[in-house]
Write a structure and sequence with these properties.
With 402 residues, this protein is mostly helical. It folds into two domains: 1-182, Growth Hormone, Chain: A, CATH 1.20.1250; 211-397, Growth Hormone, Chain: A (Up-down Bundle). It has 16 helices and no strands. Helix 7 runs antiparallel to helix 8. The model is unreliable at 397-402 (pLDDT under 50).
């Protein structure tokens, strides 16, 4: 009984640590116009604080993965929380946009410890369906935080100003650091003192990239994330220009899209008890692909906002089903280098996701058709990657049945 309680506590802590990065992006988005006026800078410079955070957030996961295989999981997490706290203080005290950008970069370096090491800890603790179920719970927290972030940040900004948002993040990080220090156990069984050697790092990532099942499962998750990032970038303009939905109403509608992702991750936690990862991922990929096809009709005829929103909700349900199951497929065979495997998975997912946002920005149009075409292309690519990644698993299942 004691072990079960400890395991649930660990999963809860990992959920909080992982969500810290996601909520750090969403919590101040509604305050960007206010920050622009306060720091007397160009809106594009303020928007760059988001891009800078995401870039360093993805890149730093590669470093934490290798560090955790040598020094354990707990120490790098604590180090990341300390760095994150310092970055948040710098953001709160920023007197010009350059200081704010530097603070966001420091924040991103610290926040990236959560997603990579969180997956590694869960891989240390669980295997099989329990691994998939636990990853789904953590992914659900990441799905929930973008919905709660703007609400909490907007409330704080209204009553106390945008700087207090970052001070609140300082308080959260300190409380989280103290809890991790006293309650999080070390989960790695065997540390490797050579894990931080440059040659060893490149060898490990070479092994991971060369593994067909791992890399295509990772690409599968990344492609669906790219489609979602493209939607998040284009949808506010589409709904405003063609469906005449104002900002407040669009914020309400976007909650339904986030709820779809949350529903998918919770479904994976339930389905993992009864279905193999192969069937779970395949089901999610098929749902996302069909949904992207259904989006073409309302994008061409532009009939109503809900006719476009419902297929997108279905897409995010499929994405929520796929990502935790794909992560379990990718990491299941790399227990000895779980930190590196988790770090590379997270980095590739975020980088490909950012690619979707970058592609949609090229079009400079409020038309719905470009974003739908991008969604379909990434969904189709994800389906293809999923087929390659899951082929070995399907072969194993068939061989057992014979």
């Amino acid at each position: 009984m004691r072990k079960i309680i400890v395991n649930y506590l660990v999963v809860f802590l990992i959920t909080c640590i992982t969500a810290l990065g996601s909520i750090s992006v969403s919590v101040y988005l509604l305050s960007l116009p206010v920050i622009t006026k306060s720091l007397n800078c160009d809106p594009s410079a303020t928007q760059f604080t988001v891009t800078a955070f995401l870039f360093i957030f993805a890149l730093s996961q590669l470093v934490y993965g290798s560090l955790s295989d040598r020094f354990g999981r707990k120490s790098p997490i604590l180090a990341g929380i300390i760095v994150y706290t310092q970055g948040s203080i710098l953001c709160a005290l920023a007197y010009d946009i350059n200081i704010l950008i530097i603070g966001r970069l420091v924040q991103g370096i610290g926040a990236s410890a959560g997603p990579s090491l969180g997956k590694a800890i869960i891989r240390d603790m669980y295997e099989g369906s329990k691994l998939t179920s636990s990853l789904a719970i953590v992914t659900a927290a990441v799905a929930l935080s973008p919905m709660l972030g703007p609400f909490m940040g907007g409330y704080i900004d209204t009553f106390w100003g945008w700087r207090v948002i970052f001070l609140a993040l300082v308080i959260v990080a300190v409380m989280l650091g103290l809890t991790v220090n006293f309650l999080l156990p070390e989960t790695i069984q065997q540390r490797n003192s050579r894990s931080t050697h440059i040659k060893v790092i490149f060898q490990r990532y070479k092994i991971l990239i060369a593994d067909k099942e791992y890399i295509f499962a990772t690409l599968c998750a990344g492609c669906l994330t790219a489609g979602n990032f493209a939607w998040n970038s284009a949808a506010p303009f589409v709904f405003s220009d063609f469906f005449h939905v104002n900002a407040d109403n669009y914020g309400t509608l976007s909650v339904f899209v986030g709820a779809g992702y949350l529903t998918g991750t919770i479904s994976t936690s339930f389905l993992s008890r009864y279905l193999t990862n192969y069937r779970i991922v395949y089901s999610g990929l098929l749902l996302s692909l069909i949904s992207s096809v259904l989006l073409f009709l309302p994008s061409i005829f532009l009939s109503s906002a809900w006719q476009m929103l419902i297929p997108m909700i279905m897409y995010t349900v499929g994405m929520g089903i796929v990502i935790p199951a794909a992560a379990a497929c990718a990491m299941s065979r790399f227990s000895e280098i779980a930190g590196s495997a988790a770090g590379l998975f997270g980095a590739i997912q975020i980088f490909i996701g950012a690619l979707g946002s970058a592609i949609i920005s090229i079009f400079h149009t409020s038309s719905a058709l470009p974003v739908v075409c991008i969604l379909f292309a990434f969904a189709l690519l994800a389906f293809y990657c999923g087929q390659i990644a899951l082929f070995p698993l399907r072969a194993k299942i068939i061989s057992k049945l014979k």
